[in-house]
Write a structure and sequence with these properties.
14 strands, binds manganese (II) ion, 7-stranded mixed sheet, Metallo-beta-lactamase, Chain A, binds nickel (II) ion
Length: about 230
């Protein structure tokens, strides 16, 4: 069984695992970095980390077309429920065995207000254990926090970390995060979408590869990685 990770640009991620397709924080429409459109993805599940527009994105349009189950926190779940969408609510620290694997919500240090001003609860990251035992940690939008060490203790194969600065961790804190998480591989996200989050991912990857045992892989939007 193979696991495929896809970076669609910004914090929009795809996962293919055990025959299931997931899209995480599906921001295609209005995303200057998006490698494709929301009409082109066909997920079974949609994960939403927090309420900001660049993460909720095209969730409703995709879910209406595909019937995908939306997995998010209780507040965003309620908001999606009012739109008539199918949801599964989880919350920070809680895990659940979905058909695609065991998904646990982790803390994220960030905000979560929804585009219409509604309360989006607390922002989250995701720690997924696939059915073949691979662990992927998708931090999504967050600042550095020391509990990343605890997430690392679970034995992470692939970590997805923001490096853009301004709204999330920048390159220096993301490097410190890599040292705490100690994953086999790390992929940087949430950079170069907008003017205020311009970064040099190759320079960052070079620092990771020099200073840690983790292998940094820089993808272009639309590129993927097997893990
Ligand atoms: Ni955000
Ligand atoms: Mn964001």
């Amino acid at each position: 069984m193979s696991n495929k990770f896809i970076w669609y640009g910004h914090a929009t991620l795809g996962l293919e695992t055990g025959g299931y397709k997931l899209v995480i924080d599906p921001f295609f429409d209005g995303n200057p970095a998006a490698s494709t459109t929301h009409e082109a993805v066909d997920p079974d599940f949609i994960l939403v980390s927090h309420g900001h527009g660049d993460h909720v994105g095209d969730t409703a349009a995709i879910a209406r077309r595909t019937g995908a189950l939306i997995i998010t926190n209780a507040e965003i779940s309620g908001w999606c429920g009012h739109l008539g969408l199918k949801t599964h609510a989880q919350h920070i620290g809680g895990g659940y065995k979905h058909p695609f694997g065991y998904l646990k919500f982790t803390i994220a240090v960030h905000g979560s207000k929804l585009p219409d001003g509604a309360d989006g609860g607390n922002p989250a990251g995701f720690l997924l254990t696939t059915n073949d035992g691979k662990k992927i940690y998708m931090a999504q939008d967050t600042g550095l926090f020391s509990e990343m060490e605890l997430i690392g203790n679970e034995g992470v194969d692939l970590a997805i970390l923001p490096i853009g600065d301004n709204y999330t961790m920048g390159p220096d804190d993301a490097l410190r995060a890599v040292k705490m998480i100690r994953s086999k591989t790390v992929v940087p996200i949430h950079y170069n979408t907008f003017e205020v989050i311009q970064q040099d991912p190759d320079a960052w990857a070079e620092r990771v590869n020099k200073e840690t045992d983790t292998k940094a892989v820089v993808l272009k939007p639309g590129e993927s990685l097997e893990f």
